[in-house]
Amino acid sequence: MTTLSRAFSPAVSTPQAQVTTLAERWAMLREQQSGLRIRNAAALLSVSEVELLATLCGQQHSQAEEQVTRLVCAPYDLLAELHSVGPLMALVRNEHAVHETIGSFGKLSGNGPVRLFLGAQDQRLFAFRWTKAFFSKTDARESIQFFNAQGSASFKLFTRPDTDMDAWAKLVSRYVAEDQSQTETVAPASPETQKVILSHDEAARLRERWGALRDIHQFNQLLRDFEVGRLTAVQYAGNEWVREVSSDAIELALTQAKEQQLSIMTFVSNGDIVQIHTGVPDRLLRTGPWFNVLDPSFNLHLNTAGIAQAWVITRPTGDGLVTTLEAFDAHGNSILQLFGERHEGEPELAEWRALTEQLPTPDKETVHASA
């Protein structure tokens, strides 16, 4: 992972003229910090990633054979054709986790605003929130990238050595947009409307509803009904259903799953998509603040310094209790969720539940709203 440097100042002048355009500022930044990722560059320049990417749109760059093309943003139409191109790397990230899965896409399922892929590529797609799409080529690496209205990356798809490049090129060509201008507009983020404090009666009703759950997917409706985020619901759920664990619980759980050869499901979401990988973690590597899973078909890069709280969460279903280990950041956003491998109609793995029961509690007791 690239470490950001604050040495760059957008106000620095070139010998010829004052650097004023975003394209010029980015070009200068890349000269100063070779290899800087576009997402990190956007943060340094105080713009969105899509605004930065658009500065390269419609033009061929000799340096690194860089090419960016704006696409018609019809995500479900395009995604439905992915099965024809062979293996791809699919990337989903949030502020503290990067989740990469390698494999071929199957049939896109569903008819409403939410669709899904199942199989080697496993995603829950909220593509009605995606508003912009681009094709990008840097050296021999090609990708299709989707962004939301705020300019943040929702979903990225990268070619692999065994991708059918003829089918890929034909797919891209069918979605090239007429507009190839070098600017993009973004919308401000919507103000937060979720509650973080519940009354005594609201908290009691939430715990009652929690105990009445019969499907893991009913939890999202519970959140909507009480107008709360995931962490707030957890904090009010009560000791019967949740237990706070230490911030290193994710790393401990992945390490123990490797030792026990226990298959787990790793979920990462950014609000626009949920990507899932199922399997036994194998190659684990700590690099500074990043804890990594580096397996042949799955990579996870987790910035554990961003974990403010971690919880073991239990919810009742028609198949028995389902246990999740979930990490949250300082703003209450979900970073990552771990489940034992489970299929609909089956109870969860007893080994997974036993693993979560042994995870340590925080060193210092934290007082939450449910106390």
Provide keyphrases for this structure.
371 residues; alpha+beta; Heme iron utilization protein-like fold; 2 domains; ten-stranded antiparallel β-sheet; eight-stranded antiparallel β-sheet; 10 helices
Give an overview of the whole structure:
23% of the residues lie in helices and 30% in strands. The chain is an alpha+beta fold and 371 residues long. The protein has 2 domains: 19-111 and 130-191, HemS/ChuS/ChuX like domains (Heme iron utilization protein-like fold); 200-357, Heme iron utilization protein-like fold (3-Layer(aba) Sandwich), CATH 3.40.1570. The strands form 2 sheets. A 10-stranded antiparallel β-sheet has the order 1-2-7-8-9-3-4-15-14-13. An 8-stranded antiparallel β-sheet has the order 5-6-12-11-18-17-16-10, sandwiched between helices. The longest helix has 12 residues, at 200-211. It is globular and about 60 Å long. The chain starts with 21 loop residues before the first helix and ends in a 14-residue tail after the last helix.
Query: Averaged pLDDT, please?
Result: 91
Q: How many structural units, i.e. domains? A: 2
* Strand order in space, largest sheet: 1-2-7-8-9-3-4-15-14-13
- The proportion of strand residues reads 25-35%
Q: Which CATH architecture of the largest domain would you pick?
A: 3-Layer(aba) Sandwich
Q: What is the total tally of β strands?
A: 18
What separation lies between the terminal Cα atoms?
A: 38 Å
**Backbone shape:** globular
Domain Haemin-degrading HemS/ChuX: 47-175, 228-359
InterPro entries: Heme_Transport_Util_sf, HemS/ChuX_dom
Pfam families: HemS
Protein name: Hemin-degrading factor
